[in-house]
Design brief:
Two copies of one chain form a homodimer. Chain A is mostly helical. The first copy, chain A, has one domain: Winged helix-like DNA-binding domain superfamily/Winged helix DNA-binding domain (Arc Repressor Mutant, subunit A), CATH 1.10.10.10. Chain A is built from five helices and three strands, in the order H-H-E-H-H-E-E-H. A three-stranded antiparallel beta sheet of chain A has the order 1-3-2. In chain A, a hairpin with a 2-residue loop joins strand 2 and strand 3. In chain A, helix 2 packs across helix 3. The N and C termini of chain A lie far apart (38 Å). At the A-B interface, helix 1, helix 2 and helix 5 of A face helix 1, helix 2, helix 3 and helix 5 of B. The structure holds a DNA duplex (30 and 30 nucleotides).
DNA sequence: TCAATATATGAACATATATTCAGGTGTTAT
DNA sequence: ATAACACCTGAATATATGTTCATATATTGA
């Protein structure tokens, strides 16, 4: 018997697709900047647009997909909508990537 | 003075682009399956193609981009070329993503 | 040298994705 | 009710990306 059978090396396509989808959320420059901002504190759309330097519409599109993946949570306060990252595990996963680039 | 100034919330575009690029390497189903296989052991192109279920050409294209990002390292042994992931930090970053999907 | 095997590459194509634009929804104040 | 503000949405477009196909390169054995 081998200590490492080939089946141990295979990740089923369904799981792999979900893993890819998760990382894809972090695979765009604007989204990285949005998420980085949200790791520090809750923010509304207008502030994020200002910080990242893209239109509120573009930010809103990104936040929608992040919401659909349940990576961010929205909270309305009057006219404004504040977004935050709820899952600490997601925050640390994301921050690991940032750290690796900032070297490491 | 505020304990959290807005500039703390901004990741410069250049760094963000690199972070995005890193995560983009993990953002495709086939690449996820290739990388998962390589986290368990060194493998050649033909074996990877068999495990992942795509052509050797497609695998080779993926490996090229992973090589260019220095996420995998190639080692030739006769006709075959074996690939592996050298950076333990990359392995753990990737595995964190897999774990998150497999829940948690 | 020639054939066989393993991998790499470039071009082409089809699909996915980010952004913009125009307009729509929801909330507050007058 | 209306205006102003904050955000959302769908369509359109431009660009990026994954795979295939044909062909090229590299290594080995006959």
């Amino acid at each position: 018997m081998n200590s490492t059978s080939t089946s141990d090396s295979v990740l089923d396509e369904h799981t792999a697709a979900h893993v890819a989808e998760l990382f894809r959320a972090f695979s765009d420059t604007s989204r990285v900047r949005i998420l980085f901002a949200l790791t520090t504190q809750e923010m509304n759309v207008n502030t994020l647009a200002g910080l990242v330097g893209i239109s509120e519409s573009a930010v809103s599109h990104h936040l929608r997909s992040l919401r659909q993946m349940e990576l961010v949570v929205a909270r309305r306060e009057g006219k404004e909508v504040f977004y935050r990252i709820e899952d600490e595990h997601i925050i640390s996963l994301f921050e690991e990537g940032v750290k690796h680039v900032q070297h490491g």
